[in-house]
């Protein structure tokens, strides 16, 4: 089972590289990238989970409408992408439910940062997918966390997938930088070990982010972005479907654990 998820948000990452970007551009770039993602999913008739910030959802209603119309899952990525308060856990859930008329079952913290599991439960979420169970220098060290799903404070924890040995992360950066055959091999090994694959991406990866003057990204971030990323994701899905592997939303997977 493969769980594809996408963090749809204000494209504020250029700020981390000392570049300015207008709010309108943040929304338009993420909107364009999400349409590309939805096109790919529609082509292959597969479902995915979209973790949205409230700010993005409020400014890209056509995206939310398309996600719901196409039968995908909408989950919470917080209220803002670069600002967090505990109150945002419940507020983002309620606001997204009102906006989409859908139940919001899941949460993912921006940038996979730590979040209080008791507060996640208190806000009413069924699952939390905010752990990357690996060591990422300068970001986090989660080598002490389980690599597979577990329950804490009454909430299912669904860590991002890592390789079946050494806990090499199989997140978006690996997808961009590894040869696709190598990434696919590691993904299949992870599925064999864990029974599923949980990987996440962002809409701006599916747009052209190669301009260093505009975005300031190093090559390992912008590599295989835009059209190359669209083709890469298309090839990955084809490869996995040929192995008779099925794609599901995270909520569908969680139901199998209950």
Distance between the termini: 17 Å
Mean pLDDT: 96
Number of helices: 10
Helix-residue proportion: 40-55%
Short descriptors:
four-stranded mixed β-sheet; alpha/beta; globular; TIM Barrel; 258 residues
Describe the protein's architecture and organization.
41% of the residues lie in helices and 13% in strands. It has 258 residues and is of the alpha/beta class. It has one domain (2-257): TIM Barrel (Alpha-Beta Barrel), CATH 3.20.20.370. The model has no long low-confidence stretch (mean pLDDT 96). The protein has helices spanning 23-44, 54-59, 61-69, 87-100, 117-122, 172-177, 180-194, 219-222, 227-242, 250-257; strands at residues 2-8, 49-52, 73-76, 106-107, 127-128, 135-136, 140-141, 150-152, 155-157, 197-201. It is globular, with a radius of gyration of 17 Å. The chain is built from ten helices and ten strands. It starts with a strand and ends with a helix. The strands form three sheets. The chain has a four-stranded parallel β-sheet with strand order 3-2-1-10.
Brief write-up:
With 258 residues, the chain is an alpha/beta fold. The protein is built from 10 helices and 10 strands.
SSE map:
Elements: E1 2-8, H1 23-44, E2 49-52, H2 54-59, H3 61-69, E3 73-76, H4 87-100, E4 106-107, H5 117-122, E5 127-128, E6 135-136, E7 140-141, E8 150-152, E9 155-157, H6 172-177, H7 180-194, E10 197-201, H8 219-222, H9 227-242, H10 250-257
Parallel strand pairs: 1-2, 1-10, 2-3, 4-5, 5-9
Antiparallel strand pairs: 6-7, 8-9
Helix pairs in contact: 1-9
